[in-house]
Amino acid sequence: MISTFAEDTRICLGHDGIEQDTLGAMAPPIVQTSLFAKDSLQELGTALENEHAQHVYSRGQNPTVEALEKKLALLERGEACKCFASGMAAVAACLFGLLKQGDHVLFVNHIYGPTLQLANRLRSYGVEHDQVLGGSLDQVAAALRPETRMIFFESPGTMTFQMVDIQELVSLARGREVLTVIDNSWATPLFQKPLSLGVDLVIHSATKYLAGHSDVVAGAVIGSAELVKRIFYDAYLLLGGALGPMDAWLVHRGLRTLPNRMQQHHRDGLGVANFLRGHAKVKQVFHPFLAADRSRYEEQLLGASGLFSVELNTESYPRIALFVDRLNLFRIGVSWGGVESLVIAPFRGHNGAALAQRGIPVGLVRLSIGLEGAGALIEDLARALDALE
Ligand SMILES: *Cc1c(COP(=O)(O)O)cnc(C)c1O
Fold it and tell me: In this structure, what are the phi and psi dihedrals at residue 185, rounded to the nearest 5 degrees?
């Protein structure tokens, strides 16, 4: 971990030479243009035939976005990256660009809700899917069909943060014409490098830790040059979810402090999780580093981000809401990965059955630990928990 973390830090800080231009600008220039004029019709024609690698139109390639793409590819140790207007645009481009009617997708582990909703939409285009929770290799193998073309997974998974053994999953897909795709938003490339373990594609919601300041929505796909090129022509250019140069620049700026932020998210997240684990009003804590299977994943997941959840010792909606509302330092809202701490609970008082079906306890509260400091956050949580009689 030490060596890749140090190397990644150099990449984030700009010692990779990607930003260097003729002016010596320390930050990448924001090339705010929709199109790039050429000297001759012939030159334009040649560029159009190679649009994934040429500056023609900013729905295709743009130099500011490209600087970010190069950096993300380096961090994930991938050949190529394409950035998108959101994480969901990246997910959509993978599904639309790589699947066709008659194909089957296997989702493994808990998956971000809108990703599954999109998969449901794809049923009406003839793309089927199943989901395996729990992630034992036997269950996954049993759920594969002859027409399975993609295993899409998260590790740790959304909401309950269970791990999946990436190498085992990859070995199952190998030799079967099944692409493996992981949503790596939680761990960031600093703490987990799925491509190095044989995964085909990594997806990020760069909105979260990569940008890190709750001021931009962005996404990315990283993998082999061949796969990213397929996604570029068959989905990205056609669906139109292009990241703007200003937003790419903001993500790029966020990356400068990614190593520092992730170190503090790791430390303070664990500190807060450990406090909650011992609290009488908390039934259990869902944090991959505090899970019974942690030793198995020591080499796969090198650090923890600041997002985890707890199950309170209550199933009463008013009491869960009371707890959330009493927190001062945790802002109430969706998303995560910014500098400020956030809290959300999926139970709304009437959706208990739907949550149970997804394996999510009614008393679950998700915390995104920001940079306020573990001590202050623990104090805030202790006070709010005391109010729960
Ligand atoms: C937020 C999120 C997404 C979607 O990203 P957007 O940038 O909001 O479109 C995808 N996957 C996970 C795990 C997320 O948390």
Answer: -60, -40
pLDDT at 135 over 90: no
Q: Helix 317-326 and helix 374-386: axis angle, to 10°? A: 140
Task: Give the max Cα distance, the chain.
Answer: 76
Rounded Cα distance between 347 and 355, Å, is 8
Ligand 1 centre distance from Cα of residue 161 (Å): 15
Nearest residue (CA) to ligand 1, atom 13: 112
Tell me how far apart the alpha carbons of residues 294 and 89 are, in angstroms, rounded to a whole number: 32
By CB neighbour count within 10 A (0-12 exposed, 13-18 middle, 19+ buried), where does 49 fall?
Answer: exposed
Place of tokens 């679950």: 364
Task: Please identify which residue in the block is written with the tokens 């930003």.
Answer: 19
CA angle (12 as vertex; 8, 16 as ends), nearest 5:
85
Distance of alpha carbon 18 from alpha carbon 24, whole angstroms: 11
Express each pLDDT in 233-278 by its tens digit.
999 999 999 999 999 999 999 999 999 999 999 999 999 999 999 9
Residue 99 has pLDDT above 90, yes or no: yes
Amino acid 69: pLDDT: 98
Q: Cβ(233)–Cβ(342) under 8 Å?
A: no
State which of 72, 88, 182, 210 you would mutate to test the pocket of ligand 1, scoring each by most atoms of that ligand within 8 A of its C-beta.
88
Residues with CB under 6 A from ligand 1: 86-88, 112, 158, 183, 185, 205, 207-208, 217, 219
